[in-house]
Structures are given as C-alpha cells and as structure tokens.
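Trying the structure run again after the queue cleared.
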Amino acid sequence: QVQLVESGGGLVQAGGSLRLSCVASGRTFSSYAMGWFRQVPGKEREFVATISRNSGITRYADAVKGRFTISRDNARNTVYLQMSSLKPEDTAVYYCAANLQGTSTRTGAYDYWGQGTQVTVSS
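Done. Tokens:
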C-alpha cells in the first residue's frame, strides 16, 4: 500500500511559477514510476508528466512541454512538478500517482493516487 499526499498548489498569476510536491509513504517509493495528472470539472483526468524509477525517463504532455519539469528524490520519497510560465488553462486539480509497471500516460495504469491539490492561474 502506498499513500500519496500532494502539496504546493495555490493561486498564481499568469506567467508565474509553482512547485508541487507529492510525498509517498512506505519504503518502496523507488519501486514505482510516478506521474502527475490534472482534472477540471466536467472533463476527464489528463496526463501531465511521468518519471521512471531512477529518473532516467521523463515524458510530458504536449500542452506542458518546455514549461513543466518533473523530478523525484527517492531518498525523500518525493516527486515534484515544477511549473513555469503558467497559463489560465493550466487551472485544475493536480494529482500524483504511482505505477509499479513503469512510466505511462494512461490513468488506468496507475495503482495509487493522491487526493489532489488545486492550482488556479488568474489572467
């Protein structure tokens, strides 16, 4: 069992930056690929970024490529999402997730999810 707790969300002006953190419980964090997803009301949860167990592989959604950076610190059981040049369309609840099988862009591939953190970007 893995429990995930996100933090770092908030209100920011367009063009600003935020860093989200997701802390995992347990001793097996390094066994999981990690992902960030986001969701707005009335829409499906969508892929944002994913990182492999040893940080060797990262993948991004086209909408955030060049603006967002995913990273992890296995010693701290933490995955991060650095978000820069934020746009109003980045407004969403952001979720982190853990995947024992490896990196994936599919929500169904992930085994554990956090409760989410709200990011609001004002224009």
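The mean pLDDT is 97. Worth checking whether this holds up in the mutant runs.
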